[in-house]
From TrEMBL:
Cited PROSITE patterns: EPSP_SYNTHASE_1, EPSP_SYNTHASE_2
Species for this entry: Leyella stercorea
Active-site annotation: D296 (proton acceptor)
Pfam families tied to this protein: EPSP_synthase
MF annotations from Gene Ontology: 3-phosphoshikimate 1-carboxyvinyltransferase activity
Family: Belongs to the EPSP synthase family.
Quaternary structure, from the entry: Monomer.
Domain Enolpyruvate transferase: 6-57, 61-405
Name listed for the protein in its UniProt record: 3-phosphoshikimate 1-carboxyvinyltransferase
Subcellular location: Cytoplasm
Domain of life, per lineage: Bacteria
Reaction(s) this enzyme catalyzes, per UniProt: 3-phosphoshikimate + phosphoenolpyruvate = 5-O-(1-carboxyvinyl)-3-phosphoshikimate + phosphate
Record keywords: Amino-acid biosynthesis, Aromatic amino acid biosynthesis, Cytoplasm, Transferase
Length: 413
């Protein structure tokens, strides 16, 4: 499948963003551990959440989580600490995404987990049993999802958990999001020093929980306004919070440097404010930024900067190589089609110094990566008639993305 995209002169729309998949997936795991009967409300309908809902409802022997990293990591810990035997598997790409750090940590706590393919990678056979808990050290430089997975089961362990993070903690706001949600469900869990988290053995309390919209999904709308730069354009969102616990809510600061301002207006009696974003003329002449806390924002910011001719040096990108695809290679390859020559350094840095080449305008490949499709679609503002291959990949986190673009006046066919 391929879409051809043409942008409107002005964008003026109210967008119902999808619910956050990170919050949905945590809520589902914690809800299951709390043995509650009130399912979290406003769950995301994206692929990555549906695989967890399906696994929890049907409990098949073989659970296929497809391409969902959070589902793979969160369910590994959940199944290891819950009675029953399961095989946990996913897409071919998932079988290349490492899980050894989490499996080693769980085995250290007494879990029975076996690799069915390559050592250190899915698929896994997991025989659930009661785990003791205690003190554990876990490397935090590959994926924060291992730590979130261990933390979420921690209140149910006999001795709770004291978890020390070694080698630095990337994606740290996701760890804080996990701790915050655990506390929302009654857990006693917090940082006890700069790199140690203590979780006491105290059962979760069942409660009603409503999922906030997804700040990561808002990033593509910021990108559209930054690329368009038209003062008349405005996008409004509902369901986002100002003081959100989602690390990606920092998108509003990053894009304030790239010509998009954010305004909140509270409506009496409504739980969430309306968030409005508008273009303004003020842009930085160049941007240096460390993405190690917010890796999912890298693609929309990289595409925006290149297309607005803002040279950049972005660090903290090492983990982009082990996500849905090698995002560093994918960004370099696809931006070259549009005439921008990026280089990577030290495995974790992406640099654009303004070097250009002749654009081929070949269709953009998406590499089974929702964020490649969503980050390149706004490029149609600069390159009318841009073609995107396999656009259906957006269902991983934002199934309504193309319909929302149409609603905002883009022609998508
Ligand atoms: O915990 C989460 O919900 C997530 C953590 C991040 O992964 P890493 O910790 O692997 O960087 C992020 O990229 C992913 O989209 C969602
Ligand atoms: C990296 C992502 O997801 P996951 O690791 O959960 O597959 C993402 O959504 O960008």
């Amino acid at each position: 499948m391929q879409y051809t995209i043409t942008a409107p002169q002005t964008i003026n729309a109210t967008i119902a963003l999808p619910a956050s998949k990170s919050i949905s997936n945590r809520a589902l795991i914690i809800h299951a551990l709390s043995c509650g009967d009130i399912l979290p409300q406003n769950l995301s309908v994206c692929d990555d959440t549906e695989v967890i809902i399906d696994a929890m409802q049907r409990r098949p022997y073989e659970i296929d989580i497809k391409g969902a990293g959070t589902a793979m990591r969160f369910l590994t810990a959940y199944l290891a600490a819950t009675p029953g035997e399961h095989v946990l598997t996913g897409t071919d790409r998932m079988k290349q995404r490492p899980i050894g750090i989490l499996v080693n940590a769980l085995r250290y706590l007494g879990a029975d987990i076996e690799y069915l393919g390559e050592e250190g990678y899915p698929p896994l056979r997991i025989k659930g049993r009661t785990l003791e808990g205690g003190y554990i050290e876990v490397a935090g430089n590959i994926s924060s999802q291992y730590i979130s997975a261990l933390l979420m089961i921690a209140p149910t362990l006999k001795n709770g958990l004291q978890l020390r993070i070694t080698d630095g903690a990337i994606s740290r706001p996701y760890i804080d999001l996990t701790l915050w949600m655990m506390r929302e469900y009654g857990a006693d869990a917090d940082w006890s020093d700069a790199d140690t988290i203590t979780v006491n053995a105290k059962p979760y309390a069942s409660r009603k929980y409503t999922i906030e919209s997804d700040w990561s999904a808002a990033a593509y709308w910021y990108e559209m306004l930054a690329l368009q730069g038209n003062d008349e354009s405005e996008v409004r969102f509902k369901g986002l919070m100002d003081a959100s616990r989602q690390g990606d809510s920092i998108v509003k600061y990053i894009f304030s440097l790239l010509g998009v301002k954010t305004k909140y207006s509270t409506v009496e009696g409504e739980r969430f404010p309306t968030v409005s974003i508008k273009s303004h003329q003020c842009m930085l002449p160049r941007l240096d930024y460390d993405f190690s806390s917010v890796p999912d924002l890298a693609q929309p910011v990289v595409v925006t900067c290149a297309l607005r001719s803002i040279p950049f040096r972005f660090t903290g990108l090492a983990t982009l190589r082990i996500k849905e695809t090698d995002r560093i290679e994918a960004l370099k390859r696809e931006l070259r089609k549009l005439g921008y020559v990026l280089r990577d350094e030290n495995g974790d840095t992406l640099v654009w110094d303004g070097t250009r080449c002749e654009p081929t305008l070949d269709p953009i490949d998406t590499y089974d990566d929702h964020r490649m499709a969503m980050a390149f679609a706004p490029a149609a503002i600069v390159f009318p008639g841009l073609r995107i291959n396999e656009p259906q990949v957006v269902t991983k986190s934002y199934p309504q993305y193309w319909e929302d673009m149409q609603k905002a006046g883009f022609e998508v066919k």
